[in-house]
Amino acid sequence: MQVSDLFWEVPLHELVQGYAYREEQGAYLCLACGESFEQGIVFPHDGVFYEASRFVQVHLAEAHGSMFEYLMGLDKKLTGLTDLQKRLLTLFHEGLSDNEIVKTMEGGSSSTIRNHRFALRERAKQAKVFLALMELADGRTAKPQRLITPHKTATMVDERYAVTEQERESVMKIYFKEGPDGPLSEIPRKEKRKLVVLRHLARQFSDNKKYTEKEVNEVLKKRHADFATLRRYLIEYGFMDREPNGSLYWIKQ
């Protein structure tokens, strides 16, 4: 399971702490970048030795600041927050009082800040109820009819991502006739099918590793002759990123 899937599927308390333990892998996974830390391994850092359960916390703090900072840095399409709401949440997180926030923002009133606090808490309550309802609804939905989760770094989330597990499996059989490890028969024109194919191809690259353009081409060339178009689509649809000069490529987290 890629981190993009795990990020959306973990329970709230794991998302808040920023990491999750997966027994099948015997490792702790950072939900921000996907780096894993195997249980039983000792990790040295600045003269101190850490067990995996502790070192993943050290990693999270050093690599991402905090889970709060990481989540606040996500695109608006994922957080649903306005710039004002993000600023207020940041100030709340810093522990500022209403009067201190008024001074920091150089305007407004303490009553206005209290109203914002109330509105955000009401939104949190509604979100909890909605999550519970979705959990209950999904539990009664047959797996083939469940929608696949859009990748976290999608440049735009719209109806193109309304793809069920059944549709995904059907697309894979159409375009990878020799199986998922085989060649791509053709590059789909329809957006939904294209996204399914690109998602699969993105998984051929390792997380937290940078590739030269030649290395990217070599991976994609094994799947289809038009590797340049596939490489461009991976960038365009937010699966990969690259240096401005195209010298290095990597999977977006």
Number of distinct helices: 12
The number of E-state strands comes to 7
Q: What's the main sheet like? A: 3 strands, antiparallel
Average pLDDT confidence is: 88
Low-confidence stretches: none
Order of helices and strands: HHEEEEEHHHHHHHHHHEE
Give me the secondary-structure category. Answer: mainly alpha
Strand content: 5-15%
Q: How many domains would you count in the coordinates? A: 3
State Rg: 21 Å
The N- and C-terminal alpha carbons lie at a distance of 14 Å
The percentage helix is: 40-55%
Could you explain the architecture of this structure?
The two termini are 14 Å apart. The radius of gyration is 21 Å and the shape is globular. It has twelve helices and seven strands. The model has no long low-confidence stretch (mean pLDDT 88). It is 50% helix and 10% strand. It is mainly alpha-helical and 253 residues long. The chain folds into three domains: 3-70, no CATH class; 74-139; 159-251, no CATH class. α7 (98-105) crosses α8 (110-139) and α11 packs across α12. The strands form three sheets. It has a three-stranded antiparallel β-sheet. A two-stranded antiparallel sheet has the order 4-5.
Helix and strand topology:
Layout: H1 3-9, H2 12-17, E1 19-22, E2 27-30, E3 36-38, E4 42-45, E5 48-51, H3 52-64, H4 67-72, H5 76-79, H6 83-93, H7 98-105, H8 110-139, H9 165-175, H10 191-202, H11 213-221, H12 227-236, E6 240-242, E7 249-251
Helix pairs in contact: 7-8, 11-12
